[in-house]
Amino acid sequence: MGSSTRAVRDTPGRRAAARRRLVAAAFLLPALVLLGALVVQPIGFSLYRSLFDRSGDTFVGAANYTAVVRDPAIRTALRNTAVWVVVAPAVATGLGLVFAVLTERVRWGTAFKLLVFMPMAISMLAAGIIFRLVYDHDPHRGVANAVVVGVHDTFAPASAFPKARPGRDSPLEPAGDGAFVTREPVRAGVPALLPLVGVAPEALPKGARTAAGARPVPGEVTGTVWQDFTRGGGGAVNAVDPTETGLAGMRIEAVKDGRTVATATARADGTFTLPAAADGARLRLPASNFREAFAGVEWLGPVLVTPAVIGAYVWMWAGFAMVLIGAGLAAVPRELLEAARVDGAGEWQVFRRITVPLLAPVLVVVLVTLVINVMKIFDLVFVIAPGAVQDDANVLALQLYRTAFGTDADQGLGSAIAVLLLVLVVPVMLVNIRRIRRGASR
End of a domain among 226, 258, 290? Predict the structure, then answer.
């Protein structure tokens, strides 16, 4: 009885199945060894090391995890990481969706996709260096500020005299809000003198000529506004000297009883003429003459550094999202789209009610992939953010590096941060695995 049972169990089919399992295990063994050496062992060691102090000799239990919660730098890193997780994947996926849909309708769509995807060929380090230059505060070096300053100056041009001011014993005095006004009213037929200093010779407007004393004109107010400074010294104060330069383009206003009654613009030699209505008025040089040049946006300052770095990330990964979404879009049945258009649906309705729902599985794949990716973001923040604002741009992966390997390194606390980062990433990975299994079972 026993021998017959063993014979039934020990069939050729069962032996073949056992051999297949052994062969499969033999092929999987190297991969399992690598997985254990490169993933499981580091995770286990990090968990173990997080329970010890800086030296690694004294067991401290959960003290490092308590320090993680209390450390303000780590709280900032957590907050910034949350901003990254919410903003960067959504923006990159949204742009990828828009690019994928629009490029289907243009003849040069393939070339556009190539250009958008090209940043993926660049390393994070190289992209960080590129955007460090793009965000440079100097408009002559930074592309972003060159554009912003160009647009700003088109609608609100800067003055040629931002540093100009009255000198000592000047007939001008401050009038508030950056303007200057004459101390005494002016009279028709008596030339007014409006001396200023502080304008660098190289900053004088093009076309400016040697200043000239205004001639008296009956019934009109004349005067000169000029740079009251003689190179090499000499010259009389508050008097037009032969080597001094007129402030061409300076705007002059005649103010009487709190309102402007006449205006003029200085000629190339600094002279100007006002009508008879200016008689008895005080002359004002408005603040617009002294407006500081717009220096651009401080992209890498404490306020904008995180959005700026996220912009660099989106530039790199929007192409990745576009390619995956484009592949999903190619599988969408065209007859559904055409049927909706025949039924009178507009393009926006087709996009919102048909295209997006059909692409939902692909969008989830892209979104989850990018969420996992930004949880580990390090390179861009480290390279783009200057040292002075790295605390403001800090994220968990960067804080892990700074804590475990930076100055005054504490590998116990760094390991605790690594475990925290793992705990945050695992739920997203589990969602992704469950989604993959659900798709495979259909």
Answer: 290
